[in-house]
Amino acid sequence: MTVTLYRMSIVPFIRGLENLSHILKKGSNAESTIPASQLVSARLHPDMQGLAYQVQRVSDTAKGAVLRVAGQDPVAMADTETTLEELQERITQTLEILKRVKEEDMEGKEDQEVVMKTISGERKFTATDYLLQYAVPNFYFHVVAVYAILRKEGVDVGKMDYLAGGRELL
């Protein structure tokens, strides 16, 4: 099987978002002992952003990377989520966006230039390098941050929740 841009981005992004939804549900189920407002604003360290921000970055990274590589218009989402339910809705909307992109939308774009504009300037990549060196690692960084915040706050999540989202791993 050939590793395509679609398989190295959309497939793991969808699975990662589904797993993220699962661990957030476990956070919701823990509300009897941990207030949801505490979870949404919880941080790993004072100089890090809170859980809501981390979920927003997971969403932005996944949809931004895929749409950028597929040559489709970006979809903006306001970062206004303040509840676990609103964060779940954002994940659902992100999944819908990803599922609309077809494999053929990304075919043959491995060497296409991708320009990422940041506060510090522009970074140029090939589509392959953009996904492998920036988008996929950034996506997982923020997914792991959510997982770690929930663990720190006492939510009963484990490695298999992160890897398999409550499903069989394979």
Task: Chart the SSEs and their pairings.
Blueprint: H1 5-29, H2 36-41, H3 51-70, H4 84-100, E1 113-118, E2 121-126, H5 127-152, H6 159-164
Account of the protein in words:
This protein has a two-stranded antiparallel sheet. It has helices at 5-29, 36-41, 51-70, 84-100, 127-152, 159-164; strands at 113-118, 121-126. With 170 residues, it is mainly alpha-helical. Helix 3 runs parallel beside helix 4. The longest helix is centred in the last third of the chain and has 26 residues, at 127-152.
Order of helices and strands: HHHHEEHH
| Rg from alpha-carbon coordinates | 16 Å
**Structural class by SSE content:** mainly alpha
Mean pLDDT: 93
Share of residues in strands? 5-15%
Helix content: 55-70%
Can you list the strand order of the major beta sheet? 1-2
Count of helix runs = 6
The description of the largest β-sheet is: 2 strands, antiparallel
What are the low-pLDDT stretches, counting only 5+ consecutive residues below 50?
none
Distance between the termini: 17 Å
How many beta strands in the DSSP annotation? Answer: 2
Q: What characteristic shape results from the CA principal axes?
A: globular
